[in-house]
Amino acid sequence: MAGKMMHAVQYDAYGGGAAGLKHVEVPVPSPKKNEVLLRLEAASINPVDWKIQKGVLRPLFLPRSFPHIPCTDVAGEVAEVGPQVKDFKVGDKVIAKLSTQYGGGLAEFAVASETLTAARPSQVSPAEAAGLPIAGLTARDALTQIAGVKLHETGQPKNILVTAASGGVGSYAVQLAKLGNNHVTATCGARNIDFVKGLGADEVLDYKTPEGAALRSPSGRKYDAVIHCTTGIPWSTFDPILTERGVVVDLTPNGSSFMTFALKKLTFSKKQLVPFFVTVKREGLEYLTQLVEDGKLKTIIDSKFPLSKAEDAWAKSIDGHATGKIIVEP
Ligand SMILES: NC(=O)c1ccc[n+]([C@@H]2O[C@H](COP(=O)([O-])OP(=O)(O)OC[C@H]3O[C@@H](n4cnc5c(N)ncnc54)[C@H](OP(=O)(O)O)[C@@H]3O)[C@@H](O)[C@H]2O)c1
Fold first, then answer.
1. Which of 76, 104, 109, 230 could bridge 38 with an S-S bond, Cβ 3.0-4.6 Å?
2. Ligand 1 centre and the CA of 321: distance in Å?
3. Domain coordinates in residue numbering, the chain
């Protein structure tokens, strides 16, 4: 592909939102020795993508450089392999998590590390696969690694609260928690109550009602774990609704979350708030892809946009009212 040009969408400075995205023609990237070049079929947008553009992760030197082609969660076909790639060949259908530092997803082609690429069975569509990496693995790992929730029927069932269950992470978290027969209470807006029940939630609260704001389970249950996918809820709201050893997994931690985390540790509190940041690995991509193939997990697709309208997809994600995942298709 050396010398070939491709269409891409990039930004060249912090800020600017959807208006800061520019449509450009740039050279198709070349895979390094352990990378695959993918002809992209779908990419999904995660809130972290536009938070990086806002400069929220500037202290972590993200993005690594400008101009930056955003988005990391993709599905596509292998178009070229680096000389040391062993597990993939040209023509393979795959799912991949691109590098957070360099992104690359809003384009016709992107390079992915072999270790963050997994085979995609033909039953799993590119859009379904592209939704999985960050959102699906955040849901899985928050449940299993932090909250100790089992995702199979032989596990000890727990009472779980998922906030913002209609969003990308929440919609996976509800489905995954139910694989383990856990009792799931969920919050979402009124328009999505039936939808979230359809994902398997046992009880659903409208977050704009007093009961929803208090996060109280209608059946009076206390929660062993909260998969907290929204923001702005103080510890004083969580404290009375947790079991003795209940844990809140905070996916959007701020200064106050880190203070609460430290305070709970220092005071040997049995109730905990744990800030969590996902690390995507190939094993996780394979695990979730298998669940989708087996019909045990669905990617809920809010909307699909062609690459030529990527700025509309970007604006929709920033707006914060998606039901499931927003997909861009080159
Ligand atoms: N730490 C990590 O590793 C990690 C990984 C992934 C995501 N995250 C973070 O987790 C958060 C969720 O991500 P996401 O991809 O799921 O976002 P998302 O898909 O954009 O979430 C949108 C959904 O949230 C709902 N919502 C908004 N405020 C709500 C509230 N107060 N109560 C209940 N529902 C509410 C909206 O419903 P309405 O339209 O009805 O308002 C909408 O359906 C983001 O802050 C993201 O940055 C963190």
1. 76
2. 8
3. 5-131+299-329, 135-275
* Ligand 1 center from residue 85 Cα (angstroms): 36
> What residues contact 90, with CB distance under 8 A and at least 6 apart?
78, 79, 80, 81
Mean of pLDDT over the chain: 96
State pLDDT tens for residues 77-117: 999 999 999 999 999 999 999 999 999 999 999 999 999 99
Return the CATH fold of 135-275.
Answer: Rossmann fold (3.40.50)
Same fold yes or no, 5-131+299-329 and 135-275: no
pLDDT of residue 167: 98
320 lines ligand 1 (CB under 6 A): yes
pLDDT digits (tens, 9 = 90+) for 267-300: 888 999 999 999 999 999 999 999 999 999 999 9
Asked whether 72 lines ligand 1 (CB < 6 A), one says no
The fourth-level CATH superfamily of domain 5-131+299-329 is Medium-chain alcohol dehydrogenases, catalytic domain (3.90.180.10)
- Does the Cβ of 175 fall within 6 Å of ligand 1? no
Residue 328 vs residues 46, 115, 210, 306: alpha-carbon distances, Å: 11, 24, 36, 6
Tokens of 194: 């039936």
Q: Best mutation site among 166, 231, 303, 323 for ligand 1, i.e. most ligand atoms within 8 A of its Cβ?
A: 166
Residues of the chain with pLDDT under 70: none
Q: Which of 51, 100, 176, 188 to mutate to test the pocket of ligand 1 (most atoms within 8 A of CB)?
A: 188
Instruction: Tell whether pTM > 0.90.
Output: yes
Classify strands 301-306 and 73-81 as parallel, antiparallel or unpaired. Answer: unpaired
Q: According to the model, what pLDDT value does residue 112 have?
A: 98
In whole angstroms, how far apart are CA 231 and each of 31, 163, 227, 292? 39, 9, 11, 29
In DSSP terms, which residues pair with 303 in a beta bridge?
326
